[in-house]
Amino acid sequence: MKKRYIISLILVASMFVLAACGGGKDTASDASDKQVLRVIESTEIPLMDTSLATDGVSFTAMNQVFEGLYTLDSKDQIIPAAAEAMPQISKDQKIYTIKIRDNAKWSDGSDLTADDFIYAWRKVVNPKSGAQYSFLYRDVVANASDIIDGKKDPKELGVKALDDKTIEIQLTQAVPYFNSLLTFGPFYPQKEAYVSKEGKDFAKDSDHLLYNGPFTMSDWSGTSKSWSFIKNDNYWDKKNVKLDRIDVQVAKEPGSAVNLYNTGKVDRAPLTGDYASQYKDNKEFVAEPDSYVYWLKFNQKQSDVANVELRKAIAKAINKEALADTVIANGAVPINGEIPNGFAQNPKTGKDFREDSGDHLTYNVAEAKEHFAKAKQQLGKSEITLELVGDDQEFAKKTLEFIQSELQTNLDGLKINLKTVPYKNRLALDKAQDYTVQLSRWAPAYKDPMTYIASWQTDNNYNNMSYSSPAYDKLTTDISTTLATNPEARWQAMLQTEKVLLDDDAAIAPLYQNATAVLEKPYVKGVVKHLFGAPYSFRWAYLEK
Known about the structure:
alpha+beta, four-stranded mixed sheet, 17 helices, Peptide/Ni-bd
């Protein structure tokens, strides 16, 4: 496929719209004189503990109220945040020395220190924490792998404070994308004294959190369907934060948001399916680039989908183009691979990853039937029944229904039972590996194909489907170690991972690269959509009325 900008339908990421609502907050007339942004989120926030969160909704919220050493600007360039400058890097690219801003503070007015980062990072890699994103540290920060595997104490992580405001980081080898990692949630700081004081109450609601980002948080109960972000008076760059407040409420049905937009009660509304088609020529239609990829995950602990022929049959029996064009219908495109279009380019030729890698597990009913016949023979069954799990949002339900119809129509003898659950519950089922087949997706944590590729290593915390391939593990290890400073050889190895993961093993079944279309009033300015890391930033947003 040609390189193109894609737009993302917000699932795990945030869908924001301005809302003129009362309920004890500013009235619409009051808000016209203030910088109060009213927005809608697609679902409740699962977690606000930066060491444990794994989803786009949590990361969007955390990105407003916390800040790492670095952040992303409006063009996804890495810029200093809590750090006063870009890192000093040793000649062998293994030692990073970073100075924290003298005026970087927590929302209680206390200084942000090197120890706050060290404490938080040790917490992530500590196996007792159960942090799924600990894999971002594995084979990256010195001793992280041994700590995660329980072989070393978290205090042996390769980080140390040279003084209160200076942190030194030792890597296991050169890591080309390390600066972008430092912008992401699992690398945010936490204040040990505060976390210890709060104990089990830490991060359970907005009253039990300490913030160092552009905003603080209020009125979030841990399960509530509304909350607010308030401008942080102790933020080091508060003079450039234009919004006074952001009011957020959950709305899972995109149709209601469109209705609010058309009746003048909101200023930004997500579009999917028929809505996207209907409004695509509207002057207030906005398309936002993204890198979300949707796929089916197969739990290989389950006896039937442990069969590779069955997985290949399922992957090839779904008309991905029809799914993207008629069900999602917002600019999403079918994808025959893991790495999205426009995300990474060959360091020598500049060709897009998707073009270099080619197509894998393409839609082919005849081949799907052949694989299914082999699967039934190998499993000794004439009929197979599987459960397909997905989220309870409207579009997700339609996606599941489409997949069910495709599989049952194209594969005679296959029955698909659907199970829809709240977003937070699906994440729990995934973590517990309590599913057979799951509609899932991945948003890149950093700007490198390894943010996708690493997910399927045997010991990766996101794997959660018992996929294990010595060939795949060797490739990923080589990419992170011996090939780390050889861009061309590293690229070829990354291309090879798709052949193993998809052509050989059909470990996942890629479906489409997602997209977001929105209606947005012209006076909404500065809302930044990121291609990786946290989905949205509101640090630079404002209303121009």
